[in-house]
Amino acid sequence: MIDVNKEISKYHPIYMDKKETEDSAGYAIGMVLKTVTDEIQKFEKRQFMTVQKIEEIFAIIEEEKELTEALRECKKMLQAVEEEKQCIIQGVITLGDALEDIYRYALRSEEESWRQQLEVMWEKTGEQLSLFGISRIEGKGQMFMPEFQVAQKVENHPDLPHGQVIDVLRAGYLYRGVLIRKAEVVVNNNLQGSV
Q1: Across 22-26, 75-79, 183-187, least confident range
Q2: Which of 7, 71, 89, 169 lies at a CB distance of 3.0 to 4.6 Å from 184, suitable for a disulfide?
Q3: Of 47, 134, 146, 53, nearest to 95 (Cα)?
Q4: Cα separation of 178 and 82, whole Å?
Q5: What span is annotated as the signal peptide, if there is one (predicted)?
């Protein structure tokens, strides 16, 4: 038969004898130590994961530094290319100005064949420039546009509309729609005051 008191004493410390009390105290200490050990292991795992993440962050930061340096180098190269492009455009415009001087002189010449040849050359040069994104600004016979032209002279011709460009002294230029230089023009003024 089952001894109920003996069975109950296994579960209640009041009924435990000294040996059972020592065993249960050892068991409790063991459980506490196991819990502490488990928590330390969990902490170590978390610490290890944190260190790994920190190392990953440092690796990303190093990559960012390298990318930033590469980006700086690319910007420097791009700036050098842009400066070189501007020099080339200015060189082309300088050559265009020299050609324009000859062209404008030929327009005032009495030699018809020479004038016609230079007009054709002037037009073909303009077509070639446009292939590279450079456009001339002239506007003879059109209305004065202050955003693209500078009035260097004003003349009075009552038979022409007020504000019409009578002559172009120096062509202006656009590069891909960006103003490089305004055209210098002669404008009609048949009103009192200036244009």
Answers
A1: 22-26
A2: 169
A3: 134
A4: 14
A5: none
What kind of architecture, by CATH, is found in domain 135-195?
Roll (2.30)
Which amino acid, 20? E
pLDDT single digits (tens) 72-122: 999 999 999 999 999 999 999 999 999 999 999 988 888 898 889 999 999
How many CA atoms lie less than 13 Å away from 166 in the CB half-sphere? 18
pLDDT in tens, 159-179: 999 999 999 999 999 999 999
Calculate the alpha carbon distances from 118 to 99, 100, 102, 105, 122 in Å: 9, 9, 8, 10, 6
Tokens, residue 80? 């050098």
Supply the mean pLDDT for the chain: 86
pLDDT at 195: 46
Q: Report angle CA 60, 64, 68 to the nearest 5 degrees.
A: 175
